[in-house]
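Section 5.1 Outputs to date
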Amino acid sequence: MDSPEVTFTLAYIVFSVCFVFTPNEFHSAGLTVQNLLSGWLGIEDVAFVQYHLRRTTVTMLVHSLLPLGYYLGMCFAASEKQLYYFNQAPEGWKLFLLLSVSFPTITCTIAYYWSRKRWDCHPLARTLALHALPQSGWRAVASSINTEFRRIDKFATGAPGARVIVTDTWVMKVTTYHIHVAQQQDIHLTVTDSRQHELSPDSNLPVQFLTIRVASINPLVKAFDIRLNSTEYGELREKLHAPIRNAANVVIHQSLGDLFLETFTSLVEINPPYSIPSNQELEPCIGCMQISANIKLVKNCQESNEGECQQCYCRPMWCLTCMGKWFASRQDQQHPETWLSSQVPCPTCRAKFCILDVCIIH
């Protein structure tokens, strides 16, 4: 496993995957096609469509060179195989070299075809032509998109490989090799899926991602999916003219408080339950007055004389939802990563408690 060719192979695979899918570390280091060829690509804000005509083409070309780059690297990492002499290389490596050369050859041919007649044959140009008026062409649509993209009130979100952009007239999804475009007045939007993650990649908080299907009434325009954080759902709806139908009956958490409340509830449910005396009746929650009080604060996190938490002697007066909202309201809003591990005072007697001390009444 310590041979140079194995080490190079593993390192090149990791590099290739990261170069194609570009994690945040590669973006920070500038190791992206957009950054390395920024002088030729131009500026996205100046001419959005023309920029992506060139970007998708050159990205395809650069990525097709990766197998050839591996072969050239192996010429040095495994010099005993004499890969730099084609007629002396093993048969398997000869086939790999032919494939490595054929990939960029084919993509160069495709790129040349796309660029003919001032990019008329590019897939993006053909997509825009579907939205053009009878007396105009795709360039008129491109001009409209370029103008609206320059406005500061557009909605834009998502990773570089799956960006979602919504302007006054257009809904677009920008991927590594393709641009999906739909006109707002022609689309139907439907929430089709929801994925809940306990921890966000960027913080120690739960996050909900929504999948929304964008379908056009124009049969020639292919439907596509956009994915975004539920906290951005409200901003997206403000920018859209069409309503969003919730086909999956998803409960959408649009704020950090909503996400925290769900996590708070799930953690409390695994705490030891509290049994009330048989002669004690539960009164309505004094927070919402809608349901009966169903939680009791009992110090469970540590021994009675240890830690910052204190024993609460109040009778059950709060429901789980209202207590969760109280807990969230007492937190530092600038540091949500500390919420789950913090203590807050009882809303009635001010005795400090943590999430481990909230018990559901059985």
